[in-house]
Amino acid sequence: MEFCLESPSSFTIRLHGQSILIHTPEQPLFYIGTCQSSYNMRLGHFVIEHEIETKVSLHVQSIEEIHPSEIYQILFSDENKFHNLQLKFIVNADGLKIEFPSTATSNYIQSVIEGDELLKRDKNTIDDSDQRNLWFSLESLSFDEETVRGGGLQFSTGDLRRKVLPIWVSEWYHDQLYPDDGTNHHRATHSTYHPQPMFHSSRGYTFCAYGSAYAQFDFTNEKFHHFHFAALPYRLELSLIDLSVGSRLYRSIPEWLHDGIILSVQGGTDVIDQKLRKMHEYGTRIAGIWAQDWCGKRITSFGKRVFWNWQWNENWYPNLKEKIVEWQRDYNGCRFLAYINPYIAVDGSLFREANEKDYLVKRVDSENLVYLIDFGEFNGAIVDLTNPQAFEWYKKVIRTNLLDLGISGWMADFGEYLPCDIRVHANIPGTLMHNLWPILWARCNHEAIRDAGKLEEIMFSMRSGYLNVQRFCPHFWTGDQSVNFSNDAGLSAGIRSCLSLSLSNVLCVHTDIGGYFGRTIGRSREVLLRWCEMAAFNIVMRTHEGNRPTSNIQFDSDTICLEFFARMSRIHAHLKPYSRQIVQKAYEEQKSCLIPHTELQYFFGHDLLIAPVVESNVNKWKVSIPDGQWIHIWTNKIFNKNQYEIDAPLGYPPVFYRSTTEWKPLFEQLQDL
């Protein structure tokens, strides 16, 4: 990139000879001001409103060249000299960095996002956060000339142009989630569990905003990309697209994940015994059993829920510790996986202990009143992860109650339900802590495993996330898709969100096989089997019974399902040598194992092209073949770059391998499984 000083009060930054960032007195780069803001949360969904009170343009007062043609210190101010902002512009061949003035609060936020260690703060630390609102724009090309992708876990079409993204961690809202009750409380377009304040432009750059406040990325204008930040970020970056944005991953994933399918089972020790025997009889390759109700269950109108007291329920799962050893011995290394989240139910023993030790998030309007959240017919509290003692206590809960029991992995769920009217130990406003919570939750899980010396053998998955969360959690799933073929909320949404998140340098991402959410109509066999055949060609293959298990077809509901899942698990396990190489290469390059090709088709590693069938009652599927020669994995037919209609009966999804691959012998053997 190139910094061009046009006059003492004007400058342009160019990319490949085209302007990308312009400041003139007539076209100011920055606006600053204040808003009257409200953040109302219900069941993890937020209604956020910002009413502008003041908004003024900033103009250049001075430009100082610190290092020739590379580092510039620019002082901006409004006309009345009320708002001053001194920024450092660093421009070189790698891109552009705009550094904002630091405060103790922004330094803490930076330590959460980028630091190896968290800076220490307590309730007596002064809150010096700069919560002035900032408006900023980048030059864009027309809708036909420039595409924009990324933004974290996004469920809509891949190109973000013509969309407005809220960068705010929340539950995902879709039209099937709630019946139409005539209110707009839950409605939030493009809401997501895992936003990333970054995107990739087809112009050849990646933009990333470092900060934690609510932000809005507006791609609806054909001439500009507009951004609004509810507090000043500490850095803005434009990097060349072939450079990795973000920090290094701290861990890869354990090899046993490649050994087969992870089966979701609930109901107790005897139920697991029965299902393992049955699946083993059908020749299923089983990497693990995932029992989310290991700590007990709770039945609500939403469906079957987990009892949020993270201790082994010995009545529900008798002899579990011995059984974990037995299952691993008798079923080819089968692991046991569990469930945990950063909240604790008020009717559990952990809540009593945490409350006595003052480890819980408080209400902003009270010195001692714990903030309780309605999670849907039961209340829970939030462990204050900014409190070092509470953080260590929760790590101990994980080590003692999960790792010491012999659990090999878990779903580290939630992270979105931090309201803004809270008070935390670090004395930082809830509006600035909210987006950071998934990172703290990921760090807590990571450090518990690290301290136990088990980084090479334990895995955990998350759905929530924010900038650089992948430093601590290498593996994510896409949350609660509907148990159907719907384009906006079902199988297609799961694929799009996987591919969207893969652009944020997340190592591995997968979906619940068959989806999770259902209200009135259960999951059909066809949905389950189409989802299963897609999942076989990924790093992790895991089922979910759904929120209403008895309404859904399951992997063992009939002989057709049993045989189908057994075969697909063998295909997944057969690909282990290739999958191991994918993970290792992606880890080294800090990229994802999935690479988007089209909106719903993708590469699994370098040499496999996957084109999942996402509609019902079809036996053929349109596939876009990329450059080179590609071989259909089920027929050995060779295809060159073009559009084709491919035979795709159940169990034989459109999958192709590159003709020049070293893995050809491995792929050819899939026909015999």
List keywords for this structure.
6-stranded antiparallel sheet, 20% helix, 2 domains, 8-stranded antiparallel sheet, TIM Barrel, 30% strand, 673 residues, alpha+beta, 39 strands
Count of the separate structural domains: 2
Rg for CA atoms: 25 Å
Approximate strand percentage: 25-35%
Average pLDDT, all residues: 94
CATH topology of the largest domain: TIM Barrel
Distance between the termini: 52 Å
CATH architecture designation of the largest domain: Alpha-Beta Barrel
Biggest β-sheet: strands ordered side by side in the sheet: 6-7-8-9-17-14-13-11
Structural class: alpha+beta
Net shape: globular
Q: Could you give me the name of the CATH homologous superfamily of the largest domain?
A: Glycosidases
Uncertain segments: none
User: How many strand segments?
Assistant: 39
* Major beta sheet summary: 8 strands, antiparallel
Which CATH class of the largest domain is shown?
Answer: Alpha Beta
State the helicity in percent bands: 10-25%
Number of continuous helical runs: 12
